[in-house]
Amino acid sequence: MAGGSFIVMKPDLRWVRGSLKNRGLWTDAKGLLGIQAGAAVLASLDIVMASLLVANRSHLATYQAAQILARVPVFVASSLSLVVFPRLVAQRAHPATSTRDVIVLYAQICIPITMVTVTLPSIVTHHLFPSGYGDVALILPVAALGGFSMGAINLITTFFQASRSFFGTTALLGVGIVLQGVLVGTGLALDGIFGLTVAVAIGAAVIASALMIRAHHTWPGCSAGVARAGLTSVLLATPLVVLRGRPVIWLAWAIGGVGLPALRSLLRFSAKTARNEGRGGRPRVLHLAFEDPRVPGSGGGSVRTYEINRRLADEFEITVVCARYPGAKDWVEDGVRYVHVGLGFGDTLSRVSYFICLPLALWRWDSDLVIEDFSAPFSSVAVPWMTSRPTIGIVQWLFASEKTAQYHLPFGTVERVGLASHRDLVAVSDDLAVELRRRNREAEVVVVPNGLNDEAFDPRVLPRRDIAYLGRLEIAQKGLDLLLQGYASVADQIDQDLILGGDGPDQKELEQLAADLGVADRVHFVGRIPKDQRLDWLASADVVAMPSRYESFGMVAAEALAVGSPVVAFDIPCLRAIVTATTGVLVPQIDATGLGQALASLCRDPQRRAQLGAAGPATVSWMRWGSLAAAQSKMYQRVLQREPATDLEATK
Question: Domain 459-623 - what CATH class?
Answer without folding.
Answer: alpha beta
